[in-house]
Amino acid sequence: MKTLFKIVPALLIGALLLISAVKPIEKVTYKCMIQLKNYTGEGAYVIISLINPNGGYEETLYVQGKDAEWYSEISEWWKFYGKRRPDIDAISGATISGGERAVHVIQIPEEKMGKGYKIRFETAVEDQEYYTKDLEFDLTQANLKGKKEGTGFIRYVRLMQQ
């Protein structure tokens, strides 16, 4: 019994030291402005994702489009999101129409910078095209500055660190 009284406090102290040594993931906040090209039709769904060095989805950073029934139409992202379906209500906003712009705040894990990760913007418009890589670029400090041109519905994107 005496041994138990010596071991339990030592284990508790060890556990507390281990917990305090775990560093939370630091995220850098960016304002993200998306300017769409002029087009006619419904509003665009835009998915902003963090892509890992193997080309797979790591994390959904933002969803532009609240009507979840259409998410499965964004097929590549849906293969990732549809399996796990994490709660994204807090990061989803209304679609934006052709020629409009929207500004959102996204958070990017600082530890992923310069380590082979990418930022991907996917776009889809009902009864029109779906662009898996409307815009994709390496996640580096240099690439997070300036204007990036899209290849589908996105005219350009600008990111500004907060």
Describe the 3D structure:
The protein is α+β, with helices and mostly antiparallel strands and 162 residues long. Helix content is 19%, strand content 40%. It is built from two helices and nine strands. The strands form two sheets. The protein has a five-stranded mixed β-sheet, covered by helices on one side. The chain is globular. The termini are far apart. The mean pLDDT is 86.
How far the N terminus sits from the C terminus, by CA atoms, comes to: 56 Å
**Number of E-type strands:** 9
Unreliable segments of 5+ consecutive residues: none
Overall mean pLDDT score?
86
Specify the number of helices.
Answer: 2
Entry keywords:
four-stranded antiparallel β-sheet, 2 helices, 162 residues
